[in-house]
Amino acid sequence: MVSDSPSILTPNDNKPMPISIKEEDDLPNAATTALLPFRTDSSSSDSHPKPATTTVIFISLVISTCIALSAAIAFAFLFFNVSSANSESRNEFSRSLTKLKNPVVLLISSDGFRFGYQFKTDTPNINRLIKNGTEAELGLIPVFPTLTFPNHYSIVTGLYPAYHGIVNNYFVDPENGDFFTMASHEPKWWLGEPLWETVVNHGLKASTYFWPGAEVTKGSWNCPKEYCMFYNSSVPFENRVDSVLKYFDLPSSEIPSFMTLYFEDPDHQGHKVGPDDPLITEAVAGVDKMLGRLISGLEERGVFEDVNIILVGDHGMVGTCDRKLIFLDDLANWIEIPKEWVQSYSPLLAIRPPSGFSPKEVVAKMNEGLKSGNVDNGGYLRVYLKEELPSRLHYSASDRIPPIIGLIEEGFKVEQTRSKRQECGGAHGYDNAFFSMRSIFVAHGPRFARGRKVPSFENVQIYNLVTTILDINGAPNNGSMSFPQSILLPNH
């Protein structure tokens, strides 16, 4: 397992830490106004209160005393019950398995499920998992860049992209000029140790119904035919759910300890129409329906309460359109950036100049032009040498990352040259500090407390969460070994 000491994978100033969001309630000042102000006017003609006045004051005092006593009793009762509830929560242990003989983790990804989508429509099945499980209250924080392949592989390796090697959806290996695409299955690209490999290393079974990297034969993982599905976007979601459910019809010793399940929605719709279109609402409802199908199938088999379900997304989504474009050709008065230099435009600008060009000088001239006020939307793009990027991004320690990286403001896009093409839709890949890039984390099962809210955290922590549930030793990673203790219920 990974210790909390500085990792050999990151320099000390880049040491990954769980990101928490602290919320404090502002307590109002106690009221100081008396219930019954007494008259002290010495000019009164009668220095002694009249009998009627004395009676009113006496009754008022009795009522005030009763109110105060009632409030004190109510407060004490509330305090006792809250303290008892907190004590019970602290003393709660994981629930015993009723049918399965060993722990099982089912990791589900809903691609592009932006945090907040669950409020767009009625999602009874997601709500059921939240109500009876544990939720990252303000969403799951993706790694940078907030793209599909880097984030899915970070979730299953616990590594930042600079260390697991998948630094973008598309990139070039500078050593040999080879191109990586989302169809590249050669082991050389995929570094680190994904969960399915870790699980198999411990003599357990794993199954993957679509997940970036799962088709790669690597280490002890050979993508077995019955337990590893090659990606095919045309396979109906219902078929995917039913295939996973069939694993629970196997003899106990044959049931995979770790399973993945993947849905393309609502990312598919988000790119076409942005995050606020009715198509997104329909897609979210569709994903929720598939979760209902899964839950019903597990209940029919009597194992729903035994399975640790972890529902996540890989990133969020933000709307884009024509008025938010930046064109590299507009920098020609300061420096020409040929398209051959550019490996990625948006939302992550990645530039690798050929030898003979100083990356530092290129960055300086680009930023000079962008800050001049003479480049449309230039103020919404900032270009860096990769080693000068904010350390919180953990995006420099790999030769696969080009030397020049541009950070684009939320919702803006970079293109090479102007055109009349319409540009409205949705995108992701931006700085992971943007709230719009957050996704969801909902977990349900014997190791997760019911109705619990936890602070947001980065998805590199999920690897250690899974290995802890399965009680196996994980490979070195960028997560914290202590993190699972803050999320999981302790075993008896």
UniProtKB/TrEMBL annotation:
Residues 1-22 are annotated as: Disordered. Residues 1-13 have a biased composition (Polar residues). InterPro entries: Alkaline_phosphatase_core_sf, Phosphodiest/P_Trfase. The chain crosses the membrane at residues 56-80. It comes from the Eukaryota. It holds the Pfam family Phosphodiest. This is Uncharacterized protein. It comes from Rehmannia glutinosa (Chinese foxglove).
